[in-house]
Fold this sequence. Notes:
By secondary structure, this protein is an alpha+beta fold. The protein has three helices and five strands; from the N terminus they run E-E-E-E-E-H-H-H. The strands form two sheets. Strands 4-3-5 form a three-stranded antiparallel β-sheet. It comes from Piscibacillus salipiscarius.
Amino acid sequence: MTVAKKKQPLRKCVVTQEMLPKKDLIRVVRNKEGEVFVDETGKMNGRGAYLSKRAEVIERAQKTQVLNRQLNAQVDEHIYDELIEKVGDS
Length: 90
């Protein structure tokens, strides 16, 4: 009897459009108050957008303002700084 492998949840990076395992991505979320922040748990309520854990992807997201469009909100510069800091760790 073979044990079924648990299915990996896949999400799409809003910059590269790649489908990747959720654990390889960082989620940025906008709650209903309109606040935007980095969701480390990946479980917070609100509209979420996923980014690959690569500095060049985050820089491209910042340049193209893709998170503003995806989250329908103004994403503050410090969010990008926080993201860059997080990918430096991983």
